[in-house]
Amino acid sequence: MASMDLVAHVGEHLQLAFSALGLALAAGLPLGILAAQASRLRGAVLSLAGIGRTLPSLAVLMLLLPWLGVGTTPAIVALALLAIPPIVISVDLGIRGVSAAALDAAAGMGMTSVQRFGRVVVPLALPVSFVGLRTATTETIASATLATFIGAGGLGDEIVRGLQTDDAALLFIGAALVAALALGADLLLGLLGRRWAERW
User: Fold this and answer.
1) Rounded to an integer, what distance in angstroms lies between the CA atom of residue 139 and that of residue 120?
2) Count of alpha carbons within 13 angstroms of residue 86, beta-carbon side
């Protein structure tokens, strides 16, 4: 029964993390592109992202409690808010790092602005942008542990239960699984990023 609980909590943990990452990508990608393309808005967007990076994970969870209550939904929203800043910052850096010579060459070939963005900017900016996704992924998986404090489940349940019952084995298993998931996701995304860079 304990092993079934553990498997279920691993599933809950991954569901929380990847649902939050999906939301973060949906919001972070357009904001990063906006920051890179609109110089007048860049300062405001990056300032907000910078503020978001300084907020402690637990504080974000607690701040959302009065509006969203407890459970899975506020946990996913809070985790997404924590994952958005590194995505925004890295997408902005990646796009602004594309060389003017490459853009000039694409324009010289007759590409439209949309074609330049899709065929030149996106492939060249992706390696740098991927760094933000890796950071957001590892941070989200690690921070999802705190979702247990608002009743959202996940591997934080094992860690908290281990602390409450002075069960070192349960505490270690919960913490080790969170670390393994974060490191595994980081390694996988690093491999995908390198393969993308080699392809282009």
Assistant:
1) 30
2) 18
- pLDDT (tens, 9 = 90+) of the chain, 200 residues, equals 466 678 888 999 999 999 999 999 999 999 999 999 888 888 899 988 888 887 777 777 777 777 777 888 888 998 999 999 999 999 999 999 998 898 888 888 888 888 889 888 988 898 888 889 999 999 999 999 988 888 888 898 888 888 888 888 888 999 999 999 999 999 998 888 788 777 76
- List Cβ neighbours of 176 (8 Å cut-off, separation of 6 or more): none
pTM, two decimals, is 0.86
Q: In 73-121, where do the E strands start and end?
A: none
SS3 readout for 152-171: CCCCHHHHHHHHHCCCHHHH
**Residue type, position 156, single letter:** G
Q: Are 20 and 144 in contact (CB under 8 A)?
A: yes
Give the C-alpha distances (Å, rounded to integers) separating 91 from 81, 123, 131, 146, 163.
16, 12, 9, 27, 39
